[in-house]
Amino acid sequence: MSDIYASNARMMGFSLPALGLNSLLVSVFVFLPALYAEQQGLGAATVGLVFLLAKVVDMFVAPTCGVLMDSYTTRWGRRRPWLAASVPILVLAVLLVYNPPETASVLYLFFSLSLLYVGFNAWSISHTSWALELSRDYDRRSRITGLLQVMVMIGGIMMSLVPAVLEQFGESTYPELVWSVGVFLIILLPLTAAVSLFSLPERETPNRPHLGLRRGAAIVFRNMALLRLLIVNALLTFSTYFVQGLFVFFVSYTLGLEDRIGFILAFLIVGGLLGLPVWLHLAQAWNKHRAMQIAFTTGAVAPLVLLALPPGMLFWTVAAFLVVGLNTSANEFLPRTMMADVCDQDHVESGSERMGLYYSLLQLSSKLASGTGIFIGFSFLAAFGFDPELGMNNTEEALQRLRYLIVALPVLAYSIVVALLWSYPISREKQQQMREIIEKREALAADRS
Q1: What DSSP state is assigned to residue 251?
Q2: Domains in the chain, CATH or no CATH each
Q3: Which of 108, 238, 315, 379 could form a disulfide with 373 if both were Cys (CB 3.0 to 4.6 A apart)?
Protein backbone atom coordinates (compact mmCIF):
# COMPACT_ATOMS: atom_id res chain seq x y z
CA MET A 1 0.00 0.00 0.00
CA SER A 2 3.02 2.31 0.37
CA ASP A 3 4.05 4.80 -2.29
CA ILE A 4 6.25 3.63 -5.17
CA TYR A 5 9.62 5.39 -5.37
CA ALA A 6 12.20 4.75 -8.09
CA SER A 7 15.26 6.26 -9.73
CA ASN A 8 14.87 9.07 -12.22
CA ALA A 9 15.78 6.70 -15.06
CA ARG A 10 13.04 4.23 -14.12
CA MET A 11 10.49 7.01 -13.69
CA MET A 12 11.41 8.30 -17.14
CA GLY A 13 11.00 4.83 -18.59
CA PHE A 14 7.63 4.42 -16.90
CA SER A 15 6.37 7.74 -18.27
CA LEU A 16 7.30 7.03 -21.92
CA PRO A 17 3.77 6.00 -23.05
CA ALA A 18 2.76 9.65 -22.58
CA LEU A 19 4.87 10.40 -25.68
CA GLY A 20 2.36 8.48 -27.76
CA LEU A 21 -0.60 9.94 -25.87
CA ASN A 22 -0.18 13.48 -27.19
CA SER A 23 1.23 12.43 -30.56
CA LEU A 24 -1.90 10.44 -31.19
CA LEU A 25 -4.39 12.97 -29.86
CA VAL A 26 -2.88 16.01 -31.57
CA SER A 27 -2.44 14.30 -34.91
CA VAL A 28 -5.98 12.87 -34.91
CA PHE A 29 -7.57 16.27 -34.46
CA VAL A 30 -5.07 18.38 -36.40
CA PHE A 31 -4.44 16.25 -39.49
CA LEU A 32 -7.31 13.79 -39.92
CA PRO A 33 -10.28 16.19 -40.24
CA ALA A 34 -8.59 18.02 -43.12
CA LEU A 35 -7.50 14.70 -44.70
CA TYR A 36 -11.02 13.29 -44.84
CA ALA A 37 -12.93 16.54 -45.43
CA GLU A 38 -10.68 17.95 -48.14
CA GLN A 39 -8.49 15.19 -49.61
CA GLN A 40 -11.05 12.36 -49.37
CA GLY A 41 -13.88 14.72 -50.30
CA LEU A 42 -16.30 13.78 -47.52
CA GLY A 43 -17.06 17.41 -46.64
CA ALA A 44 -16.48 19.38 -43.44
CA ALA A 45 -19.94 18.94 -41.91
CA THR A 46 -19.98 15.19 -42.62
CA VAL A 47 -16.53 14.66 -41.12
CA GLY A 48 -17.50 16.67 -38.04
CA LEU A 49 -20.58 14.47 -37.59
CA VAL A 50 -18.55 11.24 -37.98
CA PHE A 51 -16.07 12.41 -35.33
CA LEU A 52 -18.99 13.11 -33.00
CA LEU A 53 -20.61 9.69 -33.63
CA ALA A 54 -17.31 7.89 -33.10
CA LYS A 55 -17.09 9.71 -29.78
CA VAL A 56 -20.36 8.04 -28.75
CA VAL A 57 -18.55 4.69 -29.02
CA ASP A 58 -15.58 6.21 -27.24
CA MET A 59 -17.77 7.47 -24.39
CA PHE A 60 -19.25 4.01 -23.82
CA VAL A 61 -15.88 2.26 -23.87
CA ALA A 62 -14.09 4.62 -21.43
CA PRO A 63 -16.08 4.00 -18.21
CA THR A 64 -16.38 0.29 -19.09
CA CYS A 65 -12.59 0.05 -19.20
CA GLY A 66 -12.27 1.99 -15.94
CA VAL A 67 -14.69 -0.24 -14.03
CA LEU A 68 -13.15 -3.47 -15.38
CA MET A 69 -9.63 -2.30 -14.50
CA ASP A 70 -10.68 -1.48 -10.94
CA SER A 71 -12.56 -4.75 -10.48
CA TYR A 72 -10.07 -7.41 -11.49
CA THR A 73 -6.51 -8.02 -10.37
CA THR A 74 -4.13 -10.39 -12.13
CA ARG A 75 -0.73 -11.67 -11.08
CA TRP A 76 0.68 -8.88 -13.25
CA GLY A 77 -1.47 -6.18 -11.63
CA ARG A 78 -4.66 -4.28 -12.44
CA ARG A 79 -3.26 -1.85 -15.03
CA ARG A 80 -0.34 -3.44 -16.89
CA PRO A 81 -2.30 -6.15 -18.78
CA TRP A 82 -4.55 -3.48 -20.28
CA LEU A 83 -1.62 -1.39 -21.46
CA ALA A 84 -0.07 -4.44 -23.13
CA ALA A 85 -3.36 -5.43 -24.79
CA SER A 86 -3.92 -1.93 -26.18
CA VAL A 87 -0.81 -1.97 -28.38
CA PRO A 88 -1.95 -4.27 -31.24
CA ILE A 89 -5.37 -2.58 -31.32
CA LEU A 90 -3.79 0.86 -31.70
CA VAL A 91 -1.29 -0.25 -34.34
CA LEU A 92 -4.07 -1.71 -36.50
CA ALA A 93 -6.27 1.37 -36.03
CA VAL A 94 -3.46 3.78 -36.94
CA LEU A 95 -2.73 1.72 -40.06
CA LEU A 96 -6.35 2.05 -41.15
CA VAL A 97 -7.16 5.64 -40.27
CA TYR A 98 -3.89 7.34 -41.30
CA ASN A 99 -3.59 5.55 -44.65
CA PRO A 100 -7.12 5.38 -46.09
CA PRO A 101 -7.82 4.07 -49.60
CA GLU A 102 -9.00 6.56 -52.19
CA THR A 103 -12.49 5.11 -51.90
CA ALA A 104 -12.69 5.51 -48.12
CA SER A 105 -16.30 6.07 -47.10
CA VAL A 106 -18.07 7.55 -44.11
CA LEU A 107 -18.41 4.02 -42.66
CA TYR A 108 -14.67 3.41 -43.12
CA LEU A 109 -13.84 6.58 -41.17
CA PHE A 110 -16.36 5.72 -38.44
CA PHE A 111 -15.09 2.16 -38.00
CA SER A 112 -11.38 3.04 -37.99
CA LEU A 113 -11.88 5.97 -35.60
CA SER A 114 -13.97 3.81 -33.25
CA LEU A 115 -11.26 1.12 -33.20
CA LEU A 116 -8.66 3.81 -32.51
CA TYR A 117 -10.68 5.05 -29.54
CA VAL A 118 -11.06 1.54 -28.09
CA GLY A 119 -7.29 1.05 -28.12
CA PHE A 120 -6.65 4.56 -26.86
CA ASN A 121 -8.95 4.07 -23.86
CA ALA A 122 -7.19 0.88 -22.80
CA TRP A 123 -3.82 2.63 -23.26
CA SER A 124 -4.50 5.95 -21.56
CA ILE A 125 -6.73 4.86 -18.67
CA SER A 126 -4.45 1.99 -17.66
CA HIS A 127 -1.23 4.01 -17.78
CA THR A 128 -2.58 7.20 -16.19
CA SER A 129 -4.42 5.33 -13.40
CA TRP A 130 -1.21 3.43 -12.71
CA ALA A 131 0.68 6.75 -12.50
CA LEU A 132 -1.90 8.45 -10.25
CA GLU A 133 -1.80 5.48 -7.86
CA LEU A 134 1.98 5.65 -7.37
CA SER A 135 1.57 8.21 -4.57
CA ARG A 136 -1.05 9.69 -2.25
CA ASP A 137 0.95 12.84 -1.53
CA TYR A 138 -0.70 16.06 -2.83
CA ASP A 139 2.49 17.60 -4.22
CA ARG A 140 4.20 14.37 -5.36
CA ARG A 141 1.15 13.66 -7.49
CA SER A 142 1.74 16.99 -9.20
CA ARG A 143 5.37 16.08 -9.87
CA ILE A 144 4.42 12.67 -11.28
CA THR A 145 1.75 14.09 -13.57
CA GLY A 146 4.14 16.93 -14.42
CA LEU A 147 6.65 14.34 -15.67
CA LEU A 148 3.93 12.70 -17.73
CA GLN A 149 3.05 16.09 -19.17
CA VAL A 150 6.69 16.73 -20.13
CA MET A 151 6.55 13.49 -22.11
CA VAL A 152 3.19 14.51 -23.57
CA MET A 153 4.64 17.77 -24.87
CA ILE A 154 7.85 16.15 -26.16
CA GLY A 155 5.76 13.56 -27.98
CA GLY A 156 3.72 16.31 -29.59
CA ILE A 157 6.88 18.10 -30.72
CA MET A 158 8.32 14.87 -32.14
CA MET A 159 5.10 14.21 -34.01
CA SER A 160 4.93 17.73 -35.46
CA LEU A 161 8.55 17.54 -36.60
CA VAL A 162 7.76 14.57 -38.86
CA PRO A 163 5.65 16.59 -41.32
CA ALA A 164 7.82 19.67 -40.71
CA VAL A 165 10.91 17.84 -41.98
CA LEU A 166 9.04 16.52 -45.00
CA GLU A 167 7.71 20.01 -45.75
CA GLN A 168 11.24 21.40 -45.62
CA PHE A 169 13.06 18.79 -47.67
CA GLY A 170 10.47 17.27 -49.95
CA GLU A 171 7.40 17.82 -52.08
CA SER A 172 5.10 15.46 -50.21
CA THR A 173 1.36 15.59 -50.70
CA TYR A 174 -0.91 16.14 -47.71
CA PRO A 175 -1.95 12.44 -47.51
CA GLU A 176 1.75 11.49 -47.55
CA LEU A 177 2.41 13.89 -44.66
CA VAL A 178 -0.40 12.33 -42.66
CA TRP A 179 0.81 8.80 -43.37
CA SER A 180 4.31 9.76 -42.23
CA VAL A 181 2.79 10.64 -38.85
CA GLY A 182 1.03 7.27 -38.86
CA VAL A 183 4.31 5.43 -39.45
CA PHE A 184 5.88 7.39 -36.59
CA LEU A 185 3.06 6.25 -34.27
CA ILE A 186 3.28 2.62 -35.36
CA ILE A 187 6.95 2.63 -34.32
CA LEU A 188 6.55 4.74 -31.16
CA LEU A 189 3.59 3.06 -29.45
CA PRO A 190 4.96 -0.51 -29.07
CA LEU A 191 8.45 0.67 -28.06
CA THR A 192 7.27 3.03 -25.30
CA ALA A 193 4.75 0.51 -23.93
CA ALA A 194 7.40 -2.21 -23.72
CA VAL A 195 9.81 0.00 -21.74
CA SER A 196 7.08 1.20 -19.38
CA LEU A 197 5.74 -2.25 -18.58
CA PHE A 198 9.07 -3.33 -17.12
CA SER A 199 10.06 -0.05 -15.43
CA LEU A 200 7.89 0.06 -12.29
CA PRO A 201 5.57 -2.17 -10.28
CA GLU A 202 2.04 -1.16 -9.43
CA ARG A 203 1.28 0.02 -5.91
CA GLU A 204 -0.54 -2.69 -4.00
CA THR A 205 -4.13 -1.81 -3.22
CA PRO A 206 -6.41 -3.62 -0.76
CA ASN A 207 -9.37 -5.62 -1.98
CA ARG A 208 -12.22 -3.21 -2.41
CA PRO A 209 -15.58 -3.78 -0.76
CA HIS A 210 -18.56 -4.58 -2.95
CA LEU A 211 -20.50 -1.33 -3.21
CA GLY A 212 -23.34 -2.27 -5.47
CA LEU A 213 -24.28 -0.26 -8.55
CA ARG A 214 -26.77 2.06 -6.83
CA ARG A 215 -24.56 3.03 -3.88
CA GLY A 216 -21.43 3.31 -6.01
CA ALA A 217 -23.20 5.59 -8.49
CA ALA A 218 -24.76 7.67 -5.70
CA ILE A 219 -21.33 8.39 -4.19
CA VAL A 220 -20.03 9.46 -7.59
CA PHE A 221 -22.90 11.80 -8.42
CA ARG A 222 -22.95 13.62 -5.10
CA ASN A 223 -19.21 14.36 -5.33
CA MET A 224 -19.44 18.07 -6.13
CA ALA A 225 -15.69 18.45 -6.62
CA LEU A 226 -15.88 15.72 -9.28
CA LEU A 227 -18.79 17.32 -11.12
CA ARG A 228 -17.13 20.72 -11.15
CA LEU A 229 -13.84 19.25 -12.36
CA LEU A 230 -15.59 17.33 -15.14
CA ILE A 231 -17.23 20.52 -16.43
CA VAL A 232 -13.91 22.38 -16.26
CA ASN A 233 -12.13 19.57 -18.08
CA ALA A 234 -14.82 19.44 -20.76
CA LEU A 235 -14.48 23.16 -21.43
CA LEU A 236 -10.68 22.91 -21.64
CA THR A 237 -10.85 19.94 -23.99
CA PHE A 238 -13.48 21.61 -26.16
CA SER A 239 -11.23 24.63 -26.53
CA THR A 240 -8.13 22.54 -27.30
CA TYR A 241 -9.69 20.40 -30.01
CA PHE A 242 -11.77 23.20 -31.44
CA VAL A 243 -8.51 25.08 -32.14
CA GLN A 244 -6.67 21.97 -33.34
CA GLY A 245 -9.52 21.02 -35.67
CA LEU A 246 -9.40 24.45 -37.36
CA PHE A 247 -5.61 24.86 -37.12
CA VAL A 248 -4.74 23.50 -40.58
CA PHE A 249 -7.36 25.65 -42.30
CA PHE A 250 -6.45 28.81 -40.37
CA VAL A 251 -2.70 28.49 -40.94
CA SER A 252 -3.02 27.35 -44.55
CA TYR A 253 -5.61 29.76 -45.89
CA THR A 254 -6.17 32.71 -43.53
CA LEU A 255 -2.42 33.09 -42.90
CA GLY A 256 -1.27 31.69 -46.25
CA LEU A 257 1.39 29.40 -44.70
CA GLU A 258 0.25 26.02 -46.04
CA ASP A 259 3.84 24.75 -46.42
CA ARG A 260 4.73 25.44 -42.76
CA ILE A 261 1.93 23.66 -40.86
CA GLY A 262 4.15 21.17 -39.02
CA PHE A 263 6.75 23.81 -38.18
CA ILE A 264 4.17 26.18 -36.66
CA LEU A 265 2.44 23.33 -34.80
CA ALA A 266 5.77 22.44 -33.16
CA PHE A 267 5.98 25.94 -31.64
CA LEU A 268 2.41 25.72 -30.34
CA ILE A 269 3.50 22.62 -28.41
CA VAL A 270 6.83 24.18 -27.35
CA GLY A 271 4.81 26.98 -25.76
CA GLY A 272 3.09 24.39 -23.58
CA LEU A 273 6.43 22.88 -22.60
CA LEU A 274 7.73 26.32 -21.56
CA GLY A 275 4.61 26.98 -19.50
CA LEU A 276 4.64 23.63 -17.68
CA PRO A 277 7.28 24.46 -14.97
CA VAL A 278 5.37 27.65 -14.19
CA TRP A 279 2.08 25.82 -13.61
CA LEU A 280 3.84 23.07 -11.63
CA HIS A 281 5.54 25.64 -9.39
CA LEU A 282 2.26 27.49 -8.79
CA ALA A 283 0.44 24.23 -7.99
CA GLN A 284 3.02 23.39 -5.34
CA ALA A 285 3.40 26.93 -3.98
CA TRP A 286 -0.35 27.56 -3.64
CA ASN A 287 -3.10 25.12 -4.62
CA LYS A 288 -3.77 23.26 -7.86
CA HIS A 289 -7.02 25.04 -8.60
CA ARG A 290 -5.40 28.47 -8.09
CA ALA A 291 -2.64 27.49 -10.53
CA MET A 292 -5.34 26.48 -13.00
CA GLN A 293 -7.10 29.83 -12.65
CA ILE A 294 -3.90 31.69 -13.48
CA ALA A 295 -3.13 29.35 -16.40
CA PHE A 296 -6.51 29.90 -18.00
CA THR A 297 -6.61 33.62 -17.40
CA THR A 298 -3.48 33.52 -19.55
CA GLY A 299 -5.32 31.21 -21.95
CA ALA A 300 -8.22 33.66 -22.27
CA VAL A 301 -5.96 36.59 -23.12
CA ALA A 302 -3.28 35.02 -25.32
CA PRO A 303 -5.47 34.06 -28.35
CA LEU A 304 -6.31 37.72 -28.90
CA VAL A 305 -2.91 38.11 -30.59
CA LEU A 306 -4.26 36.00 -33.48
CA LEU A 307 -6.74 38.76 -34.34
CA ALA A 308 -3.91 41.08 -35.36
CA LEU A 309 -1.67 38.44 -36.97
CA PRO A 310 -0.89 39.44 -40.59
CA PRO A 311 -0.91 36.78 -43.35
CA GLY A 312 2.37 35.41 -44.68
CA MET A 313 4.52 36.44 -41.69
CA LEU A 314 6.17 33.23 -40.50
CA PHE A 315 8.20 34.78 -37.64
CA TRP A 316 5.21 36.55 -36.09
CA THR A 317 3.01 33.49 -36.59
CA VAL A 318 5.51 31.29 -34.74
CA ALA A 319 5.78 33.87 -31.93
CA ALA A 320 1.99 34.15 -31.65
CA PHE A 321 1.43 30.39 -31.40
CA LEU A 322 4.26 30.11 -28.89
CA VAL A 323 2.30 32.52 -26.65
CA VAL A 324 -1.05 30.83 -27.37
CA GLY A 325 0.48 27.48 -26.40
CA LEU A 326 1.72 28.54 -22.95
CA ASN A 327 -1.35 27.28 -21.09
CA THR A 328 -1.84 24.10 -23.14
CA SER A 329 0.26 21.94 -20.80
CA ALA A 330 -2.07 22.93 -17.95
CA ASN A 331 -5.06 21.58 -19.91
CA GLU A 332 -3.98 17.97 -19.31
CA PHE A 333 -1.63 18.12 -16.33
CA LEU A 334 -3.73 19.99 -13.76
CA PRO A 335 -7.07 18.18 -14.23
CA ARG A 336 -5.33 14.80 -13.95
CA THR A 337 -3.52 15.58 -10.70
CA MET A 338 -6.69 17.17 -9.30
CA MET A 339 -8.67 14.04 -10.19
CA ALA A 340 -6.37 11.94 -7.99
CA ASP A 341 -7.38 14.16 -5.05
CA VAL A 342 -11.07 13.87 -5.99
CA CYS A 343 -10.64 10.08 -5.95
CA ASP A 344 -9.41 10.37 -2.34
CA GLN A 345 -12.72 11.96 -1.42
CA ASP A 346 -14.52 9.01 -3.01
CA HIS A 347 -12.20 6.62 -1.15
CA VAL A 348 -13.15 8.19 2.19
CA GLU A 349 -16.86 7.66 1.46
CA SER A 350 -16.78 4.31 -0.33
CA GLY A 351 -13.82 2.60 1.33
CA SER A 352 -12.62 1.69 -2.17
CA GLU A 353 -9.87 3.02 -4.44
CA ARG A 354 -11.60 3.54 -7.79
CA MET A 355 -8.93 5.43 -9.73
CA GLY A 356 -9.70 3.67 -13.00
CA LEU A 357 -13.36 4.68 -12.84
CA TYR A 358 -12.60 8.26 -11.85
CA TYR A 359 -9.94 8.78 -14.50
CA SER A 360 -12.26 7.21 -17.09
CA LEU A 361 -14.89 9.80 -16.12
CA LEU A 362 -12.32 12.53 -16.70
CA GLN A 363 -11.60 10.94 -20.07
CA LEU A 364 -15.33 10.74 -20.73
CA SER A 365 -15.74 14.48 -20.27
CA SER A 366 -12.78 15.03 -22.61
CA LYS A 367 -14.25 12.73 -25.24
CA LEU A 368 -17.63 14.40 -25.30
CA ALA A 369 -16.02 17.82 -25.49
CA SER A 370 -13.46 16.90 -28.18
CA GLY A 371 -16.07 15.37 -30.46
CA THR A 372 -18.35 18.35 -29.86
CA GLY A 373 -15.46 20.73 -30.57
CA ILE A 374 -14.82 19.18 -33.99
CA PHE A 375 -18.55 19.00 -34.78
CA ILE A 376 -19.25 22.61 -33.78
CA GLY A 377 -16.08 23.91 -35.42
CA PHE A 378 -16.81 22.24 -38.76
CA SER A 379 -20.50 23.13 -38.61
CA PHE A 380 -19.58 26.78 -38.03
CA LEU A 381 -17.22 26.64 -41.01
CA ALA A 382 -20.11 25.70 -43.25
CA ALA A 383 -22.45 28.24 -41.63
CA PHE A 384 -19.84 31.00 -42.04
CA GLY A 385 -19.35 30.24 -45.73
CA PHE A 386 -15.92 28.57 -45.51
CA ASP A 387 -15.43 25.58 -47.82
CA PRO A 388 -12.25 23.52 -47.13
CA GLU A 389 -12.18 22.27 -50.73
CA LEU A 390 -11.89 25.85 -52.03
CA GLY A 391 -8.80 26.57 -49.93
CA MET A 392 -7.35 29.99 -50.78
CA ASN A 393 -10.26 30.55 -53.17
CA ASN A 394 -12.62 31.17 -50.26
CA THR A 395 -13.80 34.76 -49.99
CA GLU A 396 -11.81 37.19 -47.86
CA GLU A 397 -14.83 37.52 -45.59
CA ALA A 398 -14.94 33.73 -45.02
CA LEU A 399 -11.21 33.65 -44.22
CA GLN A 400 -11.60 36.42 -41.66
CA ARG A 401 -14.60 34.72 -40.08
CA LEU A 402 -12.36 31.69 -39.57
CA ARG A 403 -9.92 33.96 -37.69
CA TYR A 404 -12.65 35.27 -35.36
CA LEU A 405 -13.99 31.76 -34.81
CA ILE A 406 -10.67 30.26 -33.73
CA VAL A 407 -10.28 33.05 -31.12
CA ALA A 408 -13.75 33.72 -29.73
CA LEU A 409 -14.89 30.30 -28.50
CA PRO A 410 -11.66 29.38 -26.64
CA VAL A 411 -11.63 32.78 -24.91
CA LEU A 412 -15.21 32.21 -23.74
CA ALA A 413 -14.45 28.64 -22.54
CA TYR A 414 -11.38 29.68 -20.54
CA SER A 415 -13.27 32.55 -18.91
CA ILE A 416 -15.94 30.14 -17.66
CA VAL A 417 -13.24 27.80 -16.29
CA VAL A 418 -11.70 30.58 -14.21
CA ALA A 419 -15.12 31.37 -12.70
CA LEU A 420 -15.97 27.71 -11.93
CA LEU A 421 -12.76 27.22 -9.95
CA TRP A 422 -13.27 30.24 -7.69
CA SER A 423 -14.46 28.21 -4.67
CA TYR A 424 -13.16 24.74 -5.52
CA PRO A 425 -13.53 22.56 -2.36
CA ILE A 426 -10.33 20.43 -2.32
CA SER A 427 -7.23 22.29 -1.14
CA ARG A 428 -3.88 20.86 -0.05
CA GLU A 429 -5.05 20.88 3.58
CA LYS A 430 -8.33 19.11 2.75
CA GLN A 431 -6.51 16.39 0.77
CA GLN A 432 -4.07 15.78 3.62
CA GLN A 433 -6.98 15.31 6.03
CA MET A 434 -8.57 12.77 3.69
CA ARG A 435 -5.26 10.96 3.28
CA GLU A 436 -4.92 10.60 7.06
CA ILE A 437 -8.41 9.06 7.28
CA ILE A 438 -7.60 6.56 4.51
CA GLU A 439 -4.26 5.55 6.01
CA LYS A 440 -5.73 5.07 9.51
CA ARG A 441 -8.50 2.91 8.07
CA GLU A 442 -6.02 0.77 6.15
CA ALA A 443 -3.79 0.40 9.20
CA LEU A 444 -6.74 -0.87 11.26
CA ALA A 445 -7.67 -3.32 8.50
CA ALA A 446 -4.09 -4.59 8.37
CA ASP A 447 -4.03 -5.09 12.18
CA ARG A 448 -7.25 -7.14 12.03
CA SER A 449 -5.84 -9.37 9.33
Answers
A1: I
A2: 12-201+214-444 (1.20.1250.20)
A3: 238
